[in-house]
Amino acid sequence: MYSEGLKDLVRISQAAGKSPDLVQGGGGNTSVKLDDALMAVKASGYKLKEITTTDGFVVVNYKNIKEYHENVDLSKNTDYEKESGEFVRANVVPVEGLKPLRPSVEAGFHSVLLKYVIHTHPVYSNIICCCESGQELAEKIFAHRKYGFVWIPYINPGFMLTLAIMKEVKKHISDKGFFPQVIFMENHGLVVTADTADECIGLHEDVLDTIRDYFNITEPFPEVAIEPLPDGTFRSRTGYLQEYFKGRNVSASFFDETILYPDQMVYLGGNISVNGTENKMNINTETGEIIYRTGEKEALTMEETLMGFIYVVENIRKNNLKIKTMGEREADFIRNWESEKYRKSLLK
């Protein structure tokens, strides 16, 4: 019945999930509004490139979800983070042939945007989103783009992020007379939205091309790969990372003190040893070798996440910008958030 819409979902998901410079592991999400009530949105924990017309997504009643967020009474003493998550899951529409999966934790903000939505964590836009002068840079780089953008200062994913996006979108419409199609989220990532699949894909590419041009990034993103070893572990085959860590004076605390965005915490937090051998990720600074003591799916997700993190850090420094990290209170929220624990559990 909704075959064209689902084909479009696969198409925008493949475009957004084709490379680890755009998303790492199960990060990012996509959606397509199928009619005036139903929306297909990526399932939590799935990789974008894993989505097919019969798997990797759920159908929700986005009309109900949108109305919930538009009419919520914040004066009540309610745990809206928990309640909103339960409300979204209660609005999953069973579809014959689809697995009973959990919708993305960001289905809320998808419900209030245009027909097609791509949300990614590109290393290029995160050079802007993870630096102190990010908003000013975005305004400078995108001042003359006709599609319009809004900047969202860091706010916890889920319920509060949806409200923040709704507020900024309404303000942009009031101030400039049209719906902003690009959203930069500080210490998080990029969202683009459009009325057609082709426009959404093209918009996503244009934003990233514009940033690459501004920073004069001409080298292709390093190839990210791991290889199995006879003892059941995995070894990094990403030359960029081996060269980066070889001979570098770095400690495991560096990764805990330099938290750029939630996915870094979800996939790397507490899992890194430097010159040790018993953690999930073990970095040898003498040789640059990285050994993973975990399954292949988690090892590759960690490798992609580490590569993205180092790339963003190095490009911020190279451009004489100042790194903007997440605060401790925000980091604690992610560490203790049930939705992120669920997503992390799917790697096992």
UniProtKB/TrEMBL annotation:
Coiled coil: none annotated. It comes from the Bacteria. Gene3D superfamilies: Class II aldolase/adducin N-terminal domain. Pfam families: Aldolase_II. Residues 8-215 form the Class II aldolase/adducin N-terminal domain. This is Class II aldolase/adducin family protein.
